[in-house]
Specification:
The chain is mainly alpha-helical and about 170 residues long. About 45% of the residues lie in helices and about 10% in strands. It has a domain of about 80 residues. A hairpin with a 5-residue loop joins strand 1 and strand 2. Helix 4 packs antiparallel against helix 5 and helix 5 crosses helix 6. The relative contact order is 0.11.
Length: about 170
C-alpha cells in the first residue's frame, strides 16, 4: 500500500481501480456502471508509485489498520464491497470542506472537486523542485502536456532558481 523510505516522503500506488469512470450500464463492455480503463499514460491495470506527503502516509496507514482493505486492495468501498458512486464522493468532499475550512474558503474554488487533489499533488511536486520529466511520469503526462498545464506553478520562482544555479557554480 503506502511505503515510506528513509526520508519523510512516502509513496503510494495509483492504479486503474482508482480511476474507473462512471457511465450508464449499456455504455460499458460488461454492463457495469464503472468501466475499467488504464490510468493516465499507462497500460491497463498498471500501477504507478507516486510520492505523497508524510502526513498522508500516516493517515492512510491508520485507515488501513482500522478498516483493512476492500476487494482488489481498495482503500474505500461500499458495505457490499463495491465502488462508491461519484455522487457519494462529492457529498463526502463537501462535508469535509465545510468541517475543515472557514466559510470564506468553502465559498472559494479551493479543493472543490475531487480532481483538484490530483492537480494539487502535481503542483506540489513541481514547486518542491522535482524535475519536470519525473513529475510528468508520476502524473502520467507527457512533459509537453505537464508544462502546458502546470506552467503557472513554476512561474515567478526566479530567485530560488538563480540561487541554485549560483550555488552550483560555487
Amino acid at each position: 500500500m503506502c511505503s515510506a523510505g528513509s526520508r519523510a516522503i512516502g509513496s503510494a500506488p495509483t492504479c486503474a481501480d482508482f480511476g474507473q469512470p462512471l457511465s450508464t450500464a449499456p455504455c460499458t463492455d460488461d454492463g457495469e456502471v464503472h468501466g475499467a480503463r488504464k490510468p493516465k499514460g499507462g497500460p491497463k491495470n498498471a500501477v504507478r508509485r507516486v510520492p505523497i506527503p508524510p502526513e498522508l502516509v500516516r493517515l492512510l496507514r491508520e485507515h488501513v489498520e482500522s478498516y483493512g482493505v476492500g476487494p482488489g486492495g481498495r482503500l474505500f468501498w461500499t458495505y457490499r464491497g463495491g465502488i462508491y458512486q461519484p455522487s457519494t464522493l462529492w457529498q463526502v468532499l463537501q462535508k469535509a470542506r465545510a468541517a475543515a475550512f472557514s466559510p470564506a474558503v468553502v465559498a472559494s474554488p479551493l479543493a472543490r472537486k475531487p480532481y483538484d487533489f490530483r492537480h494539487a499533488g502535481v503542483s506540489w511536486r513541481l514547486n518542491a523542485g522535482a524535475p519536470g520529466p519525473q513529475v510528468a511520469e508520476w502524473a502520467g503526462h507527457s512533459v509537453e502536456v505537464l508544462y502546458r498545464i502546470y506552467a503557472h506553478c513554476i512561474d515567478g520562482d526566479d530567485e530560488r532558481w538563480h540561487k541554485r544555479m549560483e550555488d552550483f557554480l560555487g
